Amino acid sequence: MKLTRKLVLARAKASDLESVKKLNCWGCNLTDISIFEQIPNIEVLTLSVNQISSLEALSRSLHLSELYLRRNSIPLSQIYFLKALTRLRVLWLSENPCSQIDQTKYRLTVIRNLPTLHKLDNQGEELVSPPGTIQSTNGFSEADSENDPLHYSMEETNNIRAQLGLKPLTRDKFPLLSSPRDSRDSQRRKAHTLEAVLLLLKDLDMEELKIVQLVTESKIKSREEKEHRKTPEICF
Fold first, then answer.
1. Which residue has better confidence, 79 or 207?
2. Which of 23, 44, 177, 178 could form a disulfide with 66 if both were Cys (CB 3.0 to 4.6 A apart)?
3. In sequence order, what are the residues at sequence separation of 6 or more whose Cβ sits closer than 8 angstroms to the Cβ of residue 89?
4. Tens digits of per-residue pLDDT, 95-111?
5. Number of Cβ atoms within 10 Å of the Cβ of 214
6. Radius of gyration of the chain from Cα atoms?
7. Cα dist. 131→18, 28, 151, 224 in Å?
8. What is the spatial distance between Cα 192 and Cα 159, in angstroms, rounded to a whole number?
9. CB 127 within 8 A of CB 110
10. How many of the other CB atoms lie within 10 Å of CB of 64?
């Protein structure tokens, strides 16, 4: 079934397609959603429980912040069409062919294409794992790693590499990284994190560098907004 202009306007209670910002078409037996090429301002969209297999029509829905696509027929290759949706924060793709493959491959594909995404499949978890959540893969036990002077730099680097789908680096790849004498010294920890990131950049291709750029710009903007809110207004 094709999603039509008439059905969109009726469900959104709108007079024209450009004014549609929220739409719920749950369980409408849809297969064709090409109408979204004419709905540029959609922000929250529910298309769960349909028969959708292509997401190409959503590739220009740049205002999308929440997208619910549970129980459709979407393969992993279709994630690519969401790549330009930098405002997308919540994505639900469970019970689709793309989410029923190897979970690591599925999540990494999503991260690569949507680095600013916050939540995936409504599981209430941050998509990007915080430092320390990825187990050591360098042949040392977790206890050994925590006491190892190179642990901090290796951990930071390999966390980032894992999120980008790269293999973790081994200990012999860290000859230039100095060791923090005191784990409580936040300045040294930051210095090690920076060294780890710079080391990581050497192995990234152009596409992956662009992902890093997008995430960095997003972080900078967020920090600037936070600092701006902290700055008290001066009255004359």
1. 79
2. 44
3. 65, 66, 116, 117, 118, 119
4. 999 999 888 889 888 98
5. 14
6. 22
7. 42, 42, 12, 23
8. 14
9. yes
10. 23
pLDDT given at position 140:
34
Distance CA 2, CA 34 (A): 8
Q: How far apart are CA 93 and CA 53, in angstroms?
A: 12
| AA identity, residue 92 | W
SS3 assignment, position 78: helix
Whether 153 contacts 200, CB under 8 Å: no
Show the domains of the chain with their CATH numbers. 5-120 (3.80.10.10), 142-228 (no CATH)
Q: How far is CA 234 from CA 36, 212, 228, 231, in A?
A: 47, 37, 13, 9
DSSP secondary structure letters along 114-166: -TT--EETT-SS-SSPPTT-SPP-SSS-HHHHHHSTTHHHHHHHHHHHHHTTP
82: its two tokens: 């969401």
pTM beyond 0.85: no
* b/e map 24-39, b = 16+ CB within 10 Å: ebeebebeebebbeeb
91 by DSSP, 3-state: which?
Answer: strand
| Mean pLDDT, the chain, integer | 76
Cα–Cα distance measured from residue 21 to residue 177, given in angstroms and rounded to the nearest whole number: 50
CB-facing half-sphere around the CA of 52: CA atoms within 13 A: 31
Q: For residues 137-166, b (16+ Cβ closer than 10 Å) or e, as one string?
A: ebebeeeebeebebbbbbbbbbbbbbbbeb
